[in-house]
Amino acid sequence: MKLLTVTVPCYNSxxxxxxxxxxxxxxxxxxxxxxVDDGSTDGTAAIADEYAVRFPGGVRVVHQPNKGHGGAVNAxxxxxxxxxxxxxxxxxxxxxxxxxxxxxxxxxxxxxxDLIICxxxxxxxxxxKTIRYTGMFPENRVFTWEEARRSKPGRYLIMHAxxxxxxxxxxxxxxxxEHTFYVDNLCVYKPLGYVQSLLYLNCDLYRYTIGRDNxxxxxxxxxxxxxxxxAINKLMADIRHAPQNAxxxxxxxxxxxxxxxxxxxxxxxxxxYSKKRELWxxxxxxxxxxxxxxxxxxxxxxxxxxxxxxxxxxxxxxxxLFKFN
Length: 325
Fold this sequence. Notes:
The protein is an alpha/beta fold. It folds into 2 domains: about 5-210, Spore Coat Polysaccharide Biosynthesis Protein SpsA, Chain A (Alpha-Beta Complex), CATH 3.90.550.10; about 220-320, no CATH class. It contains 13 helices and 10 strands. It has helices spanning about 15-25, 45-55, 70-80, 95-105, 165-170, 185-190, 220-225, 225-240, 245-270, 275-285, 290-295, 300-305, 310-320; strands at about 5-10, 30-40, 60-65, 85, 95, 115-125, 125-130, 140-145, 160-165, 195-210. A hairpin with a 2-residue loop joins strand 6 (about 115-125) and strand 7. Helix 8 runs antiparallel to helix 9 (about 245-270). The chain starts with a strand and ends with a helix.
């Protein structure tokens, strides 16, 4: 068994996928790469097959009709043989030094942690911002939610930071919707509710490239796909977790909070006020206790200010504080 399976969803990724795959292969024999060619129409399929020939046993390729990001992640998880599982988007990459540290950390575990957390780096046209979890979690040892400290603004446990135990993802029944963007939030939120043991390695593993034209997290693109963002938001609100303790519940709540805030501010930006009301009413109907907490929270207050300048101000404050798009 490999230590780590990394799935790389690819759709027309010929221009940048080599950088991504090469960074993962630096992990050597402990890592397998599953490239999912999700119905590409450019040279992606040929590049993927080239890697499979060059690295037998290290790279496998899944060719499938286009199913979207969620369908590609599902295919990778289905094929995964590694003890741990991670998704790396084809326009991103892993830091090779941090990957070596991650693999050494995995080897040093007597019992596998359910979730390994690493830092990640936003890279926008060469300007970098690193998101670290120092001060929130003990470092370099397995711990439980009882030892976690309060979450900090902007330090949410998103996909880029997470490396889940593969069996946990399967045991929790993770199955992402097809033909839908923004599934990365659901990909973390659902299994996070089942996590009991964690390991935090203070290394900058994931390099998240932003600022590319037509990127899914770009503001214009998000506005055009707002219904998909709302769909994921609702699926998250539908999930009923049984947290280990109050701290575990807090981390789950914070992730739902930021996703709801992002949905709301995009709807404000697009002047889709009726859809924003419908989203909040949906949360109120399916999870009234969570709705009250969200509505009374700082972000809930900001995104529900009256229509007009105050709402735009809330949008800008939220965006500055929490660094989305």
